[in-house]
Write a structure and sequence with these properties.
Elements (H helix, E strand, L loop, with lengths): L1 E9 L6 E10 L4 E2 L1 E2 L2 E2 L1 E7 L4 E9 L9 E10 L7 E6 L8 E3 L6 E8 L6 E3 L4 E10 L6 E10 L4 E2 L1 E2 L2 E2 L1 E7 L4 E10 L8 E10 L7 E6 L8 E5 L4 E8 L6 E3 L4 E10 L6 E10 L4 E2 L1 E2 L2 E2 L1 E7 L4 E10 L8 E10 L7 E6 L8 E5 L26 H32 L1
Parallel strand pairs: 12-22, 24-34
Antiparallel strand pairs: 1-7, 2-3, 2-6, 2-8, 4-5, 8-9, 8-10, 11-13, 13-19, 14-15, 14-18, 14-20, 16-17, 20-21, 20-22, 23-25, 25-31, 26-27, 26-30, 26-32, 28-29, 32-33, 32-34
């Protein structure tokens, strides 16, 4: 701050060179005001233009720690016609003089804040490895041209303790020079919030006068654990998956059994994070057994790695296998989605494994029956001619011949008996 001391002088000798010296006193202590161990003082040298003059002398110093103090300016006037031997010709040093007194009022700096997600501006932030909270701080009551430092850090609301990530507090600071008594500043805190789902975080702030960087003076703070404007909520990222499995060739959910069939699974994803690398894994299940489909001792599976270009995407994954022995089976595609930002430690973020889901199901149908040979006329007029090697009709003919011969023998025998009886 700057105190200007206006001094009215009477009885000066026109043309004489004078020096006015002044310094600040602390009234309650009747002692010189020392800032950083040095007296607050100044001097002004001038040549009298008249016997009466009014001159001003200014004192600029850091008064941030002086709230409530009363300061009194003392003055001494010297004739410096001979600068090597200045002569004091007047003084004004009255610790009780209200005209020489100024009172340092406590500077009340108001802080109003709003914390939110930098990316969306929302107070609900999806848990992820890299989030940024922006704290917008409105300051009122600053002293223009004073250098300040704004410090901020995150607190866990439920525990009323500092948020620590990997053992370190989540904090930041900003140093600026006040261009006006009212200003708006922003603090950014970027950190890994992947394990903070369900937590409420509150940003605390302190403002320091750093005119003397070796002895910063705290001039304001805003630390209210119950303040909703300072609070953001970390929510669990919910990724939804909707799927449709179908025959690649026809787009139908039925496939004719064959040695090489391909099921295409179209997966709609919602809630993924743009720019994040994901891996979609899928495999086939036998619905009736609720077991993995194994062909030649291996699971029928596939995977696809991609980088999200938006929060909503549709991707496809294909499964090609031998289904020649699967007629009548219903196959269900299961899926899992992994965040592979760190490929050495993939994190499963979603799955879709519902054995009863019709959208995930395809049915393997049997081969169509071979057409039967239509009836055709034979040389006899109808019916099919006997095939080569067909012994059924030959056996029947042979039986008929035997029965016919037996009938002839029986008839002849009866005739013989009848003739013999007539002779007797």
């Amino acid at each position: 701050m700057t105190i200007v001391d206006t001094v009215s002088l009477d009885g000066l000798k026109k043309g004489t060179k004078y020096q006015l010296k002044g310094w600040e006193m602390v009234k309650s202590e009747n002692a010189e005001l020392l800032i950083d161990g040095k007296p607050v003082e100044n001097d002004l040298t001038f040549t009298a233009k008249d016997s009466k003059m009014e001159v001003q002398i200014a004192f600029t110093f850091n008064a941030s720690a002086l709230a409530g103090k009363e300061l009194v300016t003392f003055e001494e006037l010297y004739d410096v016609t001979n600068p090597d031997e200045p002569v004091k010709v007047a003084e004004h040093k009255d610790i009780e003089d209200d005209g020489q007194k100024v009172t340092i009022k406590e500077r009340v700096i108001d802080i109003h804040t709003k914390a939110c997600d930098k990316a969306t501006g929302d107070k609900m932030i999806l848990a992820s490895k890299d989030i940024t909270i922006v704290d917008t701080v409105a300051l009122a009551g600053l002293e223009k041209d004073t250098k300040y430092q704004l410090k901020g850090w995150e607190m866990v609301r439920s525990e009323n303790v500092e948020l620590l990530i990997d053992g370190k507090p989540v904090e930041n600071d900003l140093t600026f020079t006040a261009e006006d008594s009212e200003m708006e500043m922003q603090l950014f805190s970027t950190f890994n919030a992947s394990k903070l789902a369900g937590k409420e975080l509150v940003t605390f702030e302190e403002l320091y006068d750093v005119t003397n960087p070796d002895e910063p003076v705290k001039v304001a703070e805003h630390k209210d654990i119950e303040n909703d404007r300072q609070t953001v909520t970390i929510t669990e990222r919910i990724i939804t998956m909707h799927t449709n499995a179908a025959d690649k060739a026809t787009g139908e959910n039925t496939i004719d059994a064959g040695k090489e069939v391909t099921i295409v699974d179209t997966v709609s994803l919602d809630g993924i994070k743009k720019g994040v690398k994901y891996q979609l894994k899928g495999w086939e299940m036998v619905k009736s057994e609720n077991a993995e489909l194994i062909i030649n001792g291996k699971r029928v599976e596939n995977d696809l790695t991609f980088t999200a270009t938006d929060s909503t995407m549709e991707i496809q994954i294909a499964f090609t296998f031998n289904a020649s022995e699967l007629a009548g089976k219903e196959l269900v595609t299961f899926e899992e989605l992994y965040d592979v930002t760190n490929p050495d430690k993939p994190i499963k973020v979603a799955e879709h494994k519902e054995i009863e889901d019709k959208g995930q199901t395809v049915t393997i149908t049997g081969k169509p029956d071979e057409p039967t040979t239509p009836e055709s006329d034979t040389p006899t007029g109808k019916g099919n001619p006997p095939k080569t090697g067909d012994t059924t009709n030959l056996a029947l003919l042979f039986l008929l011949l035997i029965l016919s011969a037996a009938g002839l023998v029986f008839t002849a025998y009866r005739k013989y008996r009848s003739m013999k009886a007539s002779h007797n």
